[in-house]
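Quick one, tokens below. Sequence please?
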């Protein structure tokens, strides 16, 4: 297994650690800063999520720089993103920090695109994420970080950037999903 793929696998390994920190009722206190009340577990969870998110950029950087792009990496990298983001969004719904219906749409899109990727893989095609998909992932990760941090540092300003980013990520999620299905519509033409 090459270096970029090992980095991607490390992202997958961080998911259960993030899940445990965020869902086990540790009582480490709360930090009050700039109008935000951030439980320490959320701060620690955010740091883990941020490290895991950064591995997305790092593995892609090394894969391109060292010419180590593989089909395994093309498949695992977006899957690792989906697992990380879905875990975070489900936790945010449980914490009443994100609307369930928005998260359902986001996760439904992720399942639909993963299903399409599997159909394409069965036909011998492995499709890497395009720029719209990367923007979608970036907006989702920024929204999650702001939500985990209870809108820090914007809470004191009464500017709901966390919710605005959640809506922006929803728009890019739907848009990129439609784009992905449109670009790969030949799969449905061939299934008749």
């Amino acid at each position: 297994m090459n270096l970029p793929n090992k980095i991607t696998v490390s992202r997958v390994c961080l998911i259960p650690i993030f899940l445990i920190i965020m869902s086990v009722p540790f009582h480490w206190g709360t930090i009050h800063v700039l109008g935000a009340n951030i439980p320490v577990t959320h701060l620690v969870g955010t740091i883990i999520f941020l490290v895991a998110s950064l591995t997305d950029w790092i593995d892609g950087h090394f894969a391109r720089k060292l010419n180590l792009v593989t089909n395994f990496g093309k498949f695992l990298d977006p899957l690792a993103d989906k697992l990380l983001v879905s875990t975070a969004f489900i936790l945010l719904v449980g914490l009443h920090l994100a609307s369930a219906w928005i998260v359902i749409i986001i996760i439904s899109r992720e399942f639909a695109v993963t299903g399409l990727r599997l159909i394409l893989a069965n036909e011998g095609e492995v499709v890497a994420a395009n720029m719209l998909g990367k923007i979608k992932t970036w907006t989702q990760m920024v929204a999650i970080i702001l939500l985990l941090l209870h809108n820090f540092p914007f809470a004191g300003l009464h500017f709901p950037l966390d919710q605005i980013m959640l809506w922006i990520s929803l728009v890019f999620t739907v848009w990129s999903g439609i784009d992905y299905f449109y670009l790969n519509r030949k799969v449905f033409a061939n299934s008749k």
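The chain has a mean pLDDT of 90. The beta strands are 30-33, 36-39.
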